[in-house]
Every structure is written in structure tokens, then in C-alpha cells.
Amino acid sequence: MATEIRVPALGESVTEATIGRWIKKEGDAVSVDEPLVELETDKVSVEVPAPAAGVLASIAAAEGDTVEVNALLGAIDAAAAGQTASSAPAAAAPTPAASGGAEIEVRVPAAGESVTEADIGEWLKGEGDVVALDEPIVSLETDKAAMDVPAPAAGVLKKLAAKVGDTVEVGALLAVIETGAGATANGAAATMASEQPSPNAATQSAPAGADALSPAPRRVVAERGLDASTIAGTGKDGRITKGDALAANASVPAQSRAPAAPRETGPREERVRMSRLRQTIARRLKEAQDSAAMLTTFNDVDMTAVIELRKQYKELFDKKHGIKLGFMSFFVKAAVHALKEVPDVNAEIDGTDIIYKNHYDIGVAVGSDKGLVVPVVRDADQKSMADIELEIAELGRRARSGDLKIEEMQGGTFTISNGGIYGSLLSTPILNQPQSGILGMHRIEERPIARNGEVIIRPMMYLALSYDHRIVDGKGAVTFLVRMKENLEDPQRLLLDL
Hints:
Layout: E1 2-6, E2 16-22, E3 29-30, E4 35-40, E5 45-49, E6 54-59, E7 66-68, E8 72-77, E9 95-96, E10 102-107, E11 117-123, E12 130-131, E13 136-141, E14 146-150, E15 155-160, E16 167-169, E17 173-179, H1 185-189, H2 215-224, H3 242-250, H4 252-255, H5 276-291, E18 294-302, H6 304-321, H7 328-341, E19 348-350, E20 353-355, E21 362-364, E22 366-368, E23 371-373, E24 376-377, H8 385-401, E25 414-418, E26 437-441, E27 445-451, E28 454-468, H9 474-489, H10 492-496
Parallel strand pairs: 21-25, 25-26
Antiparallel strand pairs: 1-8, 2-4, 2-7, 3-6, 4-5, 6-8, 9-10, 10-17, 11-13, 11-16, 12-15, 13-14, 15-17, 18-28, 19-20, 21-24, 22-23, 26-28, 27-28
Helix pairs in contact: 2-3, 7-8, 7-9
């Protein structure tokens, strides 16, 4: 029975990839989840694992070929799995330990589409420690989120295979847990000295010469006349991907400049390496500034009606739905109404095309100890205010504990950021690409305003809409904020869909 190997989903807006190299060849025995082929996109380098154990019966695409998502890569003869079982054991199968127990490997789990590696953030357990089933033993940091890896079995943590700060790929060995009769803290501690990982085990780098490149980046280097030794690789083991080569070509003048040496820190200073999440936040914010024609427009809103409505129904709402009625559900609902009237703000630019979204997936920016993350409330237009409040509360809790999944932070169409909870009076939020708009909420402050010839004191909030001027005109941006203002100052409009 043949099992097909196909190009997996490669992330938003990525529709094709180049065959970088085949890790296995026809006739090779393979085990489940063993890497078979390396694909390169303009953004990342990814490995495609074997969907079944058996023999690689055929290869349908050669190195250097461009293949689309879901295209056929090859086939595995699963019927031959039994004949090759001895030569291709399952990667995570327990192995007998010398002390009479069994050894269970702990490996880097899959962390979502386009995520191929992570950094060791913190070891929560040390060698020789007793661990329980599903107890977190190590915290990993990807460029999108932080996550804890639980123990796959109860026993003693016999060996750590990576150090804090090491970069490890999906499927890489993290640790070994000894179970059974030999799983004692003293027995494991006796092996610590001899089994410490090599300090340089995870820092090997690939040769930078053009001959060491896979076909796709080699072709870009040759066609553009680039010097491969000056290109920083972001692929596996530091290999140069097609995207790296294209990026280097786009910045040839900067290529000739020698990188500035890091300055020496003083006696009252401390140098700390940025986490992968913080590096990604920094890169994406700068990319947003560099690529979008970003502009911000402002308005203010009288929050009296919303505050009175919350005060009137807060006890009944909490009693019925088990959640407090907050401000965010009003803003999400008001934003959805405004987005329906000004669809450009809910759209995105893809090359020379505009993609209009007929769904309303609202990202809600949440600050955590590890940085800003934006979980998404899906189909907000179809949810009640209670549904929105419950979902935002749960997403916020999991964001702060580092338990969010990658897919829960992808695919938003518009973002709301509430700097007011930190006391911000006014700000210009930066776009969350590829979105075309982001709304900034701010603190509520009593201010004197003029109404009907009289000066009165009202609880006011400034609203800021940052938008991509390439797609959103000034009229559309102002109209969006005016609709937000109208819906919040008269919340009944939300109920009547006005």
C-alpha cells in the first residue's frame, strides 16, 4: 500500500516552495515523522516528515523544482514497513536502560505551520530530578510564542541534551527520562558527568561557499552575482535559503558594510540576549514601518453611555454569563460594524492585488512577560457580547501563561490594542501586517467639553486608527472612526445594526 507525500501548508500567503534537497533517496527505509525532504520558501526552510513507516518507493520532484502546496512529492511503500522495522526504529520508542528500567526520549514537538526551530528558554527540571507524567520540564521559545514541553512519562530526568539558549529543531532530542525499576534520583545523578551535552553541539554552522548551497539559492546567487560568504543563512544548521539570497540581493549596498562590533558593557550594565519572540516582534514592527504607507488619524469618544450601560446591567450580566461586562466587547462589536461599512480597513494587499475579507477575525493585543502577542477572536460578527468577553478573558489568561497555540495568533483581519490599561492617553499603534488597520484604545479621562453652548465634564477616550494609506484613503479612515464614535456614544445602534 502506497502512502503519498505531499507539500504541506506553508503559512499565510505562501503558495509554493522549491525542493532544496532530498534527505532520503528512493529505496531508503523510513520511519514515521522522519524528515524526508527539505523545502525552501521565500520566508523559511522546512522539512517534510514521513507520513508513514516503510520504504521511499518513488520521488516525484527533483532538487531545484518549484512545487505548489499539496503537490505530490513522492510515495512510501507502507507494506514494506515490517520488512525494514529493524533498520528504521520509531524515534520515540522506549529503549532498555542498563539499570533495568526503560529510557523515554523527550523531543521538540511540532509548534505549528512555518515553525521549524525553537530556543531553549529555561529548564524547569534538572538532571536527576523526579518528574511526573505531563509535568512541564522545559520551556521553549519560538519566534511566535513560548511553550512548555511536558514529560511523556513518569520517572527520573536522566539526561539533558541541550542547554539554555541553544537552538533546536522540531524533532530534536531534548532529554531522556528513565522509567521503571532503575529510575532513581541517585542512579540518574551518577550519569550526569559522562552524559553532559557538548557545548558546541547545537552551534554548528554550514559552509557559506556557493558549492554548499542547495539548487534554489545557488541559482539566485549565480544570477545576481552575489557573494555567498556574506549572506547570513536562516535555514537548518545556518544554511542559506532562497529567501536569504533574495533578501541579500535587495540590500546589496548594505552588504558591503562590515557589521558593527557589539560595544563593551560597563560595570553597571548587563547584556541579555533577546528572546526569539522579542526578536520577531522587533523585526515585524520594523517591516511594517518599512513596507506600509502608515498613517494615523484620531478622534475622541464620550464613554458616558457605555459606562452607564455597564453599571446598569453588570450584576445581571455576570450572574447569567459568568463573566464581567467589560469595555472590549463594545469596541469589538463597534469595530465590526465600522469594518462592514469601510471594507478597505478589513482588507490586505497581496502583491498588486487587494484581498477583501468577508469575515471579521479581530486580533486583541495582549501584553505578557515575554512580549506582545495578538490572539484572534474568530467570526466576531457572529458572536454575542458574552461570547466575546469569555473568549477574550480565556485568550488573555493563556497568553500571559504562555499556553497559546500558534494558530490562535494567525489569520486576524483587524487588531485592537488597549494601551489605556497601562495609562496611555494617546499613541500611534503600529500595523500588525498584513492587516491594513489597527485601532488604539486609551485611558478614560474626565475632561471639559462643550455641549449645546455649555461646558460639561464627561469621561472621554481618545481613539487612534493607524492604517495603510496604500489601500485605505483618508476619507475611509475618518469614516471608520466616526462610526466607532457613533456606536459607542449610542450603544443601541449596535443592537439595531444601524
